[in-house]
Amino acid sequence: MVSTGGDRKPPATHHLAMMCASPSEMQNDPPQSTPTLASLCLITLVLNASYSTIAPILPLECDAHFISERWLAIIFLAYPFGICVASPLVSRWFECVGTIQIMVFGMVMVGLLFFGESFVFDVPSSYGKHVDGSSHDQLFWVFLLAMGQFSLGASMSAITTGYYSLATLLFTDHEVAMSCIESSLGMGYVLGAVLGSILYDEYGYQWAYRGISFVVLAMAFVTWRFLTKYFIFKNCKDRIEMDALPSVEAQEILILSTIEDQQEGSQHDGNYSKPNTIARWRSTKSQDVQDESHIDVLQLEAQEPIVNFLFIEKQQQSLHHVNHLKSNPTTFTLLKHAKITCAALTITWISAAWFFLEPILAKRLTHFDLGKRGIGIMFALSNLVYVPTAFCIQFIPKKIIHKHTMIATSILLTPIGVLLVGSNSFAFITFGIVWLGLFPTPVWIMLLPSMQEDASNLFPNQDKKRCVNDLTAGIYNLFITLGQVVGYIIGPLVNQSYGVVTTTRLVAGFIFLQLIVYCVGVGMCGGRLRWQRKARRKGRYFVRYI
Questions:
Q1: What SUPFAM superfamilies does the annotation carry (predicted)?
Q2: Contacts of 237 (CB under 8 A, 6+ apart)
């Protein structure tokens, strides 16, 4: 059996065989979409719920042990740095090792790391203090927490990049799959923030982390034992035979099947059934061998256009073989294209719009006497709005609003919510948190499929489709993480020096600048803007993206 995320790397002819399969066979290629998507959403929900428990727990626990915001920023920064290091690496391992295998390994590592971090503050506080008042224990705690967060980020990147890659690989409608994935991600953040604050309030830091560890390890076992089967392709008879053929003969079958597909489009009726591709090719080859001594090149061109077409294709392949070897996709070759880089920077600043709040929001909300559970609810509020918005956005007719227009509008409205969070009014802060759960949603849903489409146009060869898909998911996850890095730097450091109002204005200003970068990147690198006259309203013009 050939697996998208399990087993070993399939033969090079596998991608050719997928194109040679009939439409009825192609419908049976992936596993049933409903259980596959449900399994992927379950993994997303549980893992993000487990990680998001850190937001209301760790800052308060560090504050209880007199760890300053400067060290807290370093602890939080270690997590996205781990993702930045690991994301480009794991995206290249998916095809050869298996996506699900890497994801399960990441879950096991996350569970073990949570269990290990529960013992961090057990170090006895019996050492002396430095001149600035920080003890040796505090520095040791910061070191252990930073290393744990770095390892946790590297392990989580194997999971997050994996489900983004599978969502765009297994389903033809990428936006629907991304909508369900992002809805599950938001539900995970809701459950994690609330559950984390409750566990911390009832059982303390140690048992909260240990409980999370047990949940993640249980999810790893469930995924390995019960959910892997939903991510495995099923072979058809033609594909099994194709895997045994040499690559040159497989390419001939591919071209023959392409011609038959074109004929099928013009001859199709209710009683049409496509013949077996390999049987048709074998009969053609047998007839060519019998007539080889009696047919010259001109007769071959006149009587057998399919064979002549194969000959031309072979000549073109030999002429461009070196160019194909030089055009192998990598993370750097994809990022060299301005449109992909501009899109990736967009998700960076949308990500920073929330993550700059994580280290400072919990302490800011303590001034309103909400208590630990109230703070957990406030952390969950944004995602309570995000979940239904992310799920319903897939039903917006794409013919009415273009995806680039929705993304640009989303970037334009996001800074308003950021500025509202910087207010001194609790009502405005609450409204700003809700705003940040509502209006950035189109970027989270539509940006990755858009990047996948742009990347696939750069490398249209079918045998590179899986590699391009995985690399683009890795880039997407990498730039989300860069948003976390920016947020964790701006949040505690700028807030400590200049206050929350200046911090929110700085983030909002950078998001407005990113809107300009995105519009320029789409207009100049991904298409062109042209003035057109409306037919029904003379004298008025509008801008249309082409």
A1: MFS general substrate transporter
A2: none
